[in-house]
Amino acid sequence: MRFGSTSPLAVRAAGDLGRFGLGMKTASISQCLKLQVLSKRNGETTNAAWDVGRICERNEDKWNLVLENGAEAVSDSTLRALYREFLADHPHGTIVFWSDMDRMEKDGTEKSFGAAVTALSAHLARTFHRLMKPARGGFSLFVNNREIEPSDPFNEANLACQSFPEEHIRIRGETIKAQAFVLPHHSKTTAEEYERFSGVDGYRGSQGFYIYRNKRLIISGTWFRLRPREELTKLVRIRVDIPNTLDSIWKIDIKKASADLPESVRQELRRVIPVAIESGKAVVRHRGYKIPSTVREPLWRRTEVDQTVSYSINKSGYAFQHFAESLTPGQRSEFESLVHLLESRLPTDQLYADICDHPKSMKQGSLDDELVAFFLDRYLAAKPSATLDEVLATDPFFLREELVKHLWQKRSEK
Questions:
Q1: What's the rounded mean pLDDT across residues 46-58?
Q2: Which helix (H) or strand (E) holds 205?
Q3: Contact 382, 318 (CB under 8 A)
Q4: How far lies 155's CA from each of 60, 176, 235, in Å?
């Protein structure tokens, strides 16, 4: 219960998660007026309490720790009940108990409490996910008697997740480990899975390095100014493991919620990035609907002039021409004006936002078999000598190759 360790520079056990000796106490006092730690070891029980209210009432020059030796001496009835439920039948264990939670009581609505529980559960699931494996010697976490499922930000359980060889960086005789991952494209996940791994800041805001100190997540989703965040790299995440012996060069803060990338490590990490970046870009680029280079007659034209890109309807295509030629000159002029209006109002910003933020919710209507047959008839009426290969090099027939071949066969049999 002492505030502060003997020295943050002291050599500590390899698996020690502590550093300053301030975390539990300062975190607790920030949330409550009374912190009690009841600990049982070798059958002996001691309860120690920091009681801010008591200290203020007595106006003492020093903070005095309240000690209660023996389970029967514990004055708080709720804590005694917790002892009987969780520790009485075990030789050792510890209960950290908060009471007089003034921060929570200021906004003590059921809704605010529920939101706090949800946020806490998500934070624990992500921060300690690599330690929450009881089968491998780890521990379990429960919130309101509900076990927290670990949240792996790299989605390694999905077979479509790409992992790269682990890199080792030697600094001051210690080893830093770095491993890059490319998360699965949304087409390789369920809607629930894709949402779960997006993180609080979404995929674009969650890319980059994830720093772990003894498998505890310290900082996540940053490139440390080594490169900018881009939409094409939103699936790239790099896990970096640091030992507690290098805390000083990483400038780990008291809350263990931030770290600075040491210059000695910066250059080494640069070589981990490129391969993952290229793979990540390839996944984002090539998993959706894409017009192949073999398609000679697309419905939409992409034009790039002086680094400016625009999209327009292919007005020389069979679909446009077939309809336009059936109109009177006046009607055709009005029709072309309408098409131009629609092109100029293509909602590119909204499309970009929806595709980036909610790709699983994007769903365009597809052409049914009758419409494909209708447009195939119109295409062949305009180009009666066209071959099957030419038809399959036209939009949208390349998307329905099997159906088009079937329709072609039926026409040949007539």
A1: 85
A2: helix 202-205
A3: yes
A4: 53, 22, 11
The pTM of this model reads: 0.64
Of residues 15 and 95, the one with the higher pLDDT is 95
pLDDT-derived band at 127, boundaries 50, 70, 90:
very high
Q: Which residue has the tokens 């076990």?
A: 147
Q: How many whole angstroms from its chain centre is CA 96?
A: 31
Q: What are phi and psi of 147, to 5 degrees?
A: -70, 135
Which has the minimum average pLDDT: 8-17, 137-146, 178-187, 205-214? 8-17
Contacts of 337 (CB under 8 A, 6+ apart): none
Q: In 223-360, which residue ranges form alpha helices assigned H by DSSP? A: 247-250, 263-270, 273-286, 318-324, 329-344, 348-357
The arithmetic mean of pLDDT across residues 398-412, rounded, is 88
The alpha carbon of residue 224 and the mean position of all alpha carbons in its chain are separated, in whole angstroms, by 17
User: Given a cut of 70, is residue 404 above it in pLDDT?
Assistant: yes
Mutual orientation of helices 369-382 and 401-413 as an angle, nearest 10°? 60
Residue partners of 331: CB distance under 8 A and separation at least 6:
none
Note whether 212 and 259 are within 8 A (CB).
no
Q: What domains lie within the chain, and their CATH numbers?
A: 23-100 (no CATH), 162-286 (3.30.230), 300-413 (no CATH)
